[in-house]
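Q: Give me the 3D complex with NDP.
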Amino acid sequence: MAGKLTDKVAIVTGASSGIGEATALALASVGATVVIAARRSDRLLALEARITSTGGKVLSITADVSDEAQVEALVNKTQAKFGRVDILINNAGVMLLGLIDGANTEDWRRMINLNVLGLMYATHKVLPLMKAQGTGHIVNISSVAGRVANAGSGVYNASKWAVGAFSEALRKEVYQNNIRVTIIEPGLVATELAQHITDSTAKEQAKNFYGSVKNLESEDIANAIVYAVTQPEHVNVNEILIRPTEQE
Ligand code: NDP
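A: Here is the predicted complex, encoded as structure tokens.
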């Protein structure tokens, strides 16, 4: 499929649903070879078939991104099959909302291990390849929650704040290697994200919050990502904050 990203290889984590799935489709539609990763193999295979049926190039790899060895295997397989990694979309994430006092700290570990460490492992693993190529683009999915903290969202806020800090430090470390770093900060997007909340009160509150405005669609975020990664090489789109019009 010809397009602005022909000959580019992109890894999208968390591609089995929501923003990651839409982003994989959007990148493939502009010519990128996409490597789609997540834990649910059935969903990845369905997406793989969808992309292939429209002439796109795709490889699905089952991986738990919170496990460093699985992230390394994901990048190694991509490198072995396609010989390069031009774009990394660090999208996999969970939002397990709840008050700090009385929280199930397993929720905290899941958020930090995936939203923060998983993103760091993938970045760490692709950097030597991107440096050797002399080009690369890392897109980190943060959130409005990476800029505005709220009661009931403390650890999710902390995880996304970490994404912002890490991304800015990373940008300063690698811009001289022609590696671009972009942070995407969505507001409310209609996905499965809030369905995984384990605290029943927080889950109900999230449902009401999402239900109170017309949400963004995953494609809206995918469009922003495609915009960032299709700019000329001298343009580094550092940050895109994108809310539903009706969100405060
Ligand atoms: P979804 O729940 O639809 O997607 C999350 C993705 O992450 C799924 O593909 C899931 O796949 C994957 N994932 C979860 N755990 C793991 C894991 N351990 N290893 C690998 N993949 C994993 O939600 P969204 O699309 O909304 O979320 C995508 C990103 O967008 C997240 O980082 C989220 O924080 C962020 N975001 C979302 C907003 C929203 O309102 N929806 C707003 C702001 C930011 P699987 O379960 O198959 O592993």
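A quick observation: The helical segments are 18-29, 41-53, 68-82, 105-133, 154-174, 200-211, 218-229.
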